[in-house]
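Quick start: read one record
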Amino acid sequence: MLLKDLINKRKFDKSADRLGPDIPFTHWKLFFKKSMLKLCKKKFKSFSDSSEFRPGAYAVVCSKISIGERVVIRPGTMLFADPRENGAGITIEDDVLIGSCVHFYVGNHNFENPNIPIINQGHTDSQPILLKKGCWVGANVTILPGVEIGENSVVGAGSVVTKSIPSGVVAVGNPAKVI
């Protein structure tokens, strides 16, 4: 039974529209530049030759995530696109700096009825996330659905971004506000 389970896990890992430590039969490829690039170009909607997806990072629904030039996705970072047919994705333009453990969420749980457990209420419609050229997102930032971070803006470490941030500003806090 163990051998059959391993074979099935390997098949799943190779075909899954995701990357991360929970997908060990492809995750090891992230440790080596050449195999990392080959894997990321296959999995992501677009992925530049000058970018990196480091071991320890997660991407769910890679086929709806675009990564521009000179972008590094660091360990602990989690990118969650929407797997539904018309679900939203994530676009990260060129020269974007992303700290470790940044979380991207294009959707959320419904929580309209307090008499029904949230797990039974389904999900909201997803909204895309866009990080424009040259912005910098500090470590441990959470970016929520529908957010656009403007060109050359900075989001301070630990911030929760609930609304779009204009170009050329610094935003910090929970919720993130321009300072």
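The first strand starts at residue 18 and ends at 19.
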